[in-house]
Amino acid sequence: MKNLVSILVLVFAITFTTQAQQKRGGNRDKGSSLTPEQHATLAVKKMTLALDLSQKQQNEIKPLLTAKMAERKAAMEQKKANRADKKRPTADEKYAMQNKRLDDKIYMKNKMKDILNKEQFEKFEKMQKGRNKMAMNKMKGKKGSKNNKGSQRGSRTQQGK
């Protein structure tokens, strides 16, 4: 009877962990069904609420964001294709991608500086810094979870000795 109960508990535990892992992986494609224009429209509306943009400013920002979203979508498709083919970028390709990304950031910052007034631009910069911090924390969390498991195992074995 004890063996039967322990086997049932083990089966339930395995079932729940596999379902939790499947649910966690399902959110990755959350926004991919939207077109770049739809993404840009939503982003402009969010910026309008946060920065109190005029109609003229909205009309100037929307094409910038639409182009940015289209580039991002194309890059994601390229990444997916490379991942499917198990291709890794070379050091020169990584350098070129990072260089292009930074050039795009500089271009976008300069354009936003031209479109927004001083107060709006300062608020925009704060928003960007907040987004960057959140992204960095998210990346640290992903990396840290793998590293923490190993360090916990190591500490347990050292405590057991």
TrEMBL record:
It comes from the Bacteria. Residues 151-161 have a biased composition (Polar residues). Residues 1-20 form the signal peptide. Residues 72-97, 128-161 are annotated as: Disordered. Keywords: Signal. Transmembrane segments: none annotated. This is DUF4890 domain-containing protein.
